[in-house]
Structure formats: structure tokens, C-alpha cells
Amino acid sequence: MAFTLSAEQEKLVDQILARYPVLQAACIPVLHLCQKQVGWVSPEVIDYVASRVGLSTSQVQGVVTFYTMFHQRPPGRHTIWVCRTLSCEVRGAKTIQEHLERRLGCHAGETSADGAFTLKKAECLAGCGYAPMVQIDDTFHENLTVAKLDAILDRIARGEAATQDETPWYPHAPAP
Ligand code: FES
Fold this sequence. Notes:
This protein is of the alpha+beta class. It has helices spanning 7-18, 27-38, 43-53, 57-66, 86-90, 93-104, 146-157, and strands at residues 78-83, 117-122, 134-136, 139-141, 167-168. It has a 5-stranded mixed sheet with strand order 2-1-3-4-5, covered by helices on one side. It binds FE2/S2 (inorganic) cluster (FES).
């Protein structure tokens, strides 16, 4: 079935497209908007985005497979991206990832059996000065230790919000 957005969301897509002199440049923000609505980028979403921004479906597919922030299948209720690039790697990212794999019972690219967390590896998330770090949903968690990470996951499991010292992801991004 073809993917559709609500009339309100379609207006947002129009606003996004109007920001860019070259329509194709709107591909990523339109993908974000669609993913926010349905949780992942299905083949139907790819068809929709391709038709709205004037790209082929394979070009949009190329964007989706390149950027780890896009989900190619339905994710868990929360997504954890573990940065594995140099600064985080030398400051303990491997330990962080291995701990997460043990705690969640799944490997990077998989979702825990209870559907709570999808675990992903990421290239540099631009928090190098605060390594090691992970992104959980829309929030950066920095200067991590295993104990600190466990406290964060316990808090998320209790449904509590991020604390003030945790940084919203991409804080200066315009609303999609
Ligand atoms: S290397 Fe991890 S945030 Fe840059």
C-alpha cells in the first residue's frame, strides 16, 4: 500500500521543500519527517520520498543505507547508537558496546527480545571531546562508564526523562 502523510505533515513537507533551491537536497529532512511518523523507512516511504524530491528510489535507498540514523526495519522502543570512531574507541567504546550486548542480549544491528532497545554502531557522532559516548533516541550521553550507562538505562526503563547534563541530539536543527 502506498505511503501517505496526513494533510498537516504534507504541509510540513512543502515547507521543507521550499527551503531548498535544489529539491533533491531535501531528501534527508523529508526522510526524517517520514521516519518520525512511522518509526522506520519502509520501501513505501522510499517510493514516497523519491517522488517528492525528484530522486530515483535507488538514490533514496542509497541515502537510507548510508546513514545509520535511518531504520531499515521497525526498531525497538528506544535506539542506542554506540560511537565506535577513534576518540570513543580509545576511551572505552568497545567495553561500552560489549556491556550493552550482554545487558540487552543482542548484538549491534539487532533489537532486544523484549522490544525495548535496538542497538546500533555509529561513526563519529560529533561528541569526541566527551568520549566515550552513545546517543539514545534524541539525547547524547557522554563521558560514559559502564556504571553511568547502567544508571541511564535503568532510568529509561522507569520512563524518566533525560537529565540536564545530557545533550539533545543536534540541538540547533530546525524542526523538520
Ligand atoms: S569519535 Fe565518538 S563522538 Fe567522535
